[in-house]
């Protein structure tokens, strides 16, 4: 196995595992997530929809035939997260979290594109 393939899979797993965990927390309506979505002004059904979409996107990331679909879903979710954090005037630390995750996803996308992984 080449080093670029190993780096790619480490980055992908480092993204997919937390993505699955956070999606699951939203899907089962964890108390902390409910409070957060109420503060954002979003209904609970939307939180569960996002949780389902995150789990679906994580599953898509693990298979080469569906990886681009997973990336697309996550880019849309993260764009919405950035917008929401800015809209509710969150701290810079909370705004930077989805931006950093988006950059991680961008690195995965670029590796897929350039190295044809």
H/E series, N to C?
Answer: HHHHH
Amino- and carboxy-terminal Cα gap: 12 Å
The portion of residues assigned to helices is over 70%
Q: Which stretches are poorly predicted, pLDDT < 50 over at least 5 residues?
A: none
Strand content: under 5%
Radius of gyration: 15 Å
Number of domains: 1
Mean pLDDT: 96
Alpha-beta content class: mainly alpha
Q: Tell me how many strands there are.
A: 0
Q: Strand count, sense and closure of the main sheet?
A: none
Question: How many H/I helices?
Answer: 5
Describe what you observe in this structure.
With 117 residues, this protein is mainly alpha-helical. The protein has one domain. 84% of the residues lie in helices and 0% in strands. It is built from five helices and no strands. The chain has helices spanning 3-27, 31-40, 44-61, 67-87, 92-115. α1 runs antiparallel to α3. The chain is globular, with a radius of gyration of 15 Å. It starts with a helix and ends with a helix.
List the helices and strands and how they pair.
Layout: H1 3-27, H2 31-40, H3 44-61, H4 67-87, H5 92-115
Helix pairs in contact: 1-3, 1-5, 3-4, 4-5
Provide a brief overview of the structure.
The protein has 117 residues and is mainly alpha-helical.
Please describe the structure with a list of short key phrases separated by commas or semicolons.
5 helices, mainly alpha, 117 residues
């Amino acid at each position: 196995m080449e080093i670029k393939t190993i780096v790619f899979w480490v980055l992908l797993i480092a993204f997919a595992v937390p993505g699955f965990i956070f999606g699951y927390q939203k899907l089962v309506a964890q108390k902390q997530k409910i409070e957060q979505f109420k503060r954002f002004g979003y209904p609970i059904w939307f939180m569960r929809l996002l949780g389902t979409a995150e789990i679906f996107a994580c599953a898509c990331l693990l298979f080469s035939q569906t990886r681009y679909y997973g990336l697309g879903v996550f880019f849309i979710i993260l764009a919405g997260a950035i917008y929401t954090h800015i809209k509710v005037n969150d701290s810079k630390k909370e705004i930077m979290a989805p931006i950093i995750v988006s950059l991680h996803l961008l690195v995965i996308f670029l590796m897929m594109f350039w190295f044809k992984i």
